[in-house]
Automatic annotation (TrEMBL):
Pfam families, alphabetized: PTPS (PF01242)
The UniProt record lists the keyword Lyase: yes
Pathway, per record: Purine metabolism; 7-cyano-7-deazaguanine biosynthesis
Cofactor(s) annotated in UniProt: Zn(2+)
EC number(s) on file: 4.1.2.50
Catalytic activity, as annotated: 7,8-dihydroneopterin 3'-triphosphate + H2O = 6-carboxy-5,6,7,8-tetrahydropterin + triphosphate + acetaldehyde + 2 H(+)
Species for this entry: Psychrobacter glaciei
Superkingdom assignment: Bacteria
Protein's recorded name: 6-carboxy-5,6,7,8-tetrahydropterin synthase
Coiled-coil blocks: none
N-terminal signal peptide: none
Keywords assigned by UniProt, alphabetized: Lyase, Metal-binding, Zinc
Length: 207
């Protein structure tokens, strides 16, 4: 079964090496809509794939990092990068180009890494990211799947190769969020008090 959560943010960038003269030479922005699609082969004790409320913590924080920020490819001109850092309090340095295609890959990558390091507390099983769709405009989007994240021909993604400005990280619920992710530390979901006993909890076979 799959579930979908929609996130929104405003972001600015230059997309170097693209065909459009406007996009590759000028800073411009978009109102992005991100569809995060999760899947699992069984449901938790609340009979959900994953409680939508749990997506309001670390995963929402990391996606919200893009909001009202400027993103740049860390291979861009050093003077341009320095200007972005000097004149914008909110910026993200990416190891890939800030295109819609790469936004879908990056968000998939971050969300999947957070889920891998999350200690589940409510019977969740094999919850994973199925796909991420990054809507850049009303008429165009990029969609990413697991094979795209792993495909190094699309650009290698390593946790250590991203950098966030101080203002971005200061607005996370846990300002050490990304450092914990790099260190492989666990993110622990809140405990749940059972109100209805399920067959699985009672040690009975599934119906």
């Amino acid at each position: 079964m799959r579930i979908r959560k929609l996130f929104k943010f405003e972001n600015a960038h230059i997309v170097r090496n693209c065909s459009s003269e406007r996009c590759k030479h000028s800073i411009h922005g978009h109102s992005y809509q991100i569809e995060l699609i999760l899947e699992a082969k069984r449901l938790d004790h609340g009979q959900m794939v994953y409680d939508f409320g749990l997506l309001k913590s670390s995963i929402k924080d990391i996606i919200d990092s893009f909001d009202h920020a400027i993103c740049f490819w860390n291979k861009d001109d050093p003077e341009y990068i320095a200007a972005c850092k000097k004149f914008s309090a909110r910026w993200i340095s990416l190891p890939v180009s800030p295109s819609a295609e790469q936004f879908s890959r990056v968000i998939f990558f971050w969300a999947q890494e957070i889920l891998k390091q999350t200690q589940m507390q409510n019977g969740e099983s094999d919850v994973s990211v199925y796909s991420v769709i990054a809507h850049e405009t009303a008429t165009g989007y990029a969609q990413c799947f697991a094979d795209d994240v792993a495909n190094e021909q699309m650009g290698q993604l390593n946790l250590e190769d991203f950098e966030f400005s101080d203002q971005v990280s200061a607005e996370w619920h846990d300002t050490d969020l990304y450092a914990k992710l790099i260190r492989g530390e666990s993110f622990t979901n809140p405990t749940v008090t059972m109100q209805v006993q399920t067959q699985v909890q009672a040690g009975k076979p599934d119906a």
